[in-house]
């Protein structure tokens, strides 16, 4: 039987992305960043976390992507209808303090089942929630651009992906 995976393995041996792009975006399962950015396999690095935020770890990946793997342009892409807009640090901390079970959301708020014991460890984490997408993109691009490990000649662009229209909207920084 023919191994369908074989061509992909061959292509993956080249570690430098073909288009020299890195894209920092949200981990939301509904998003296919390669598709909405019009890229093919091997074109770009995709760094994903909750919200597509410029956390220390996201910056670690971006720095590796240029320093060792030669990317030359970076994109921060957040999106409309993001789950990170539905809670605050306080809400997350209270939910985790109540229990470690999966919480639920209704039209008004998040609710915890309260079954089992929770933990106060959530109080020590900045959950990097999002109040306003445009402000969030602007802050993240600014943080990346002004980071001491990021060279000034790498362009960093900010976008919001509109999940309804499928359009990418540039955010002026
Ligand atoms: Zn999201």
Identify the notable features of this structure and list them briefly:
173 residues; Beta-carbonic Anhydrase, Chain A; 5-stranded mixed β-sheet; two-stranded antiparallel sheet; 27% helix; binds zinc ion
Fold blueprint:
Blueprint (H helix, E strand, L loop, with lengths): L5 H7 L8 E6 L6 H4 L7 E6 L6 H12 L5 E7 L9 H10 L5 E2 L4 E2 L21 H13 L10 E6 L6 E4 L2
Parallel strand pairs: 1-2, 1-3, 3-6
Antiparallel strand pairs: 4-5, 6-7
Quick take:
The protein has 173 residues and is an alpha/beta fold. 27% of the residues lie in helices and 19% in strands. It folds into 2 domains: 18-86 and 129-173, Beta-carbonic Anhydrase, Chain A; 88-126, no CATH class.
- How much is the average pLDDT? 90
N-to-C SSE string, H for helix and E for strand: HEHEHEHEEHEE
Task: Give start-end ranges of low-pLDDT stretches.
Answer: 1-12
Trace the largest sheet across and list its strands.
2-1-3-6-7
Relevant CATH superfamily of the largest domain? Carbonic anhydrase
Return the CATH topology of the largest domain.
Answer: Beta-carbonic Anhydrase, Chain A
CATH C-level class of the largest domain is Alpha Beta
**Count of DSSP H/I helices:** 5
What percent of residues adopt helix (DSSP H or I)?
Answer: 25-40%
For the record, the count of structural domains works out to: 2
The share of residues in extended strands comes to: 15-25%
């Amino acid at each position: 039987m023919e191994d369908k995976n074989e061509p992909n393995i061959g292509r993956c041996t080249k570690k430098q992305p073909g288009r020299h792009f890195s894209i920092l975006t949200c981990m939301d399962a509904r998003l296919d960043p390669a598709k909405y950015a019009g890229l093919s396999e091997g074109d770009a690095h995709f760094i994903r976390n909750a919200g597509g935020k410029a956390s220390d770890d996201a910056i670690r990946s971006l720095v590796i992507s240029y320093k060792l793997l030669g990317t030359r342009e970076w994109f921060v892409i957040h999106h409309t209808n993001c789950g990170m807009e539905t809670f605050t640090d306080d809400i997350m901390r209270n939910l985790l303090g109540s229990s470690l079970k999966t919480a639920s959301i209704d039209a008004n708020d998040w609710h915890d089942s309260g079954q089992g014991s929770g933990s106060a460890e959530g109080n020590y984490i900045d959950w990097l929630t999002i109040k306003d997408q445009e402000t969030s993109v602007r802050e993240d691009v600014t943080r990346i651009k002004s980071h001491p490990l990021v060279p000034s000649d790498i362009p960093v662009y900010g976008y919001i992906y509109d999940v309804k229209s499928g359009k990418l909207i540039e955010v002026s920084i």
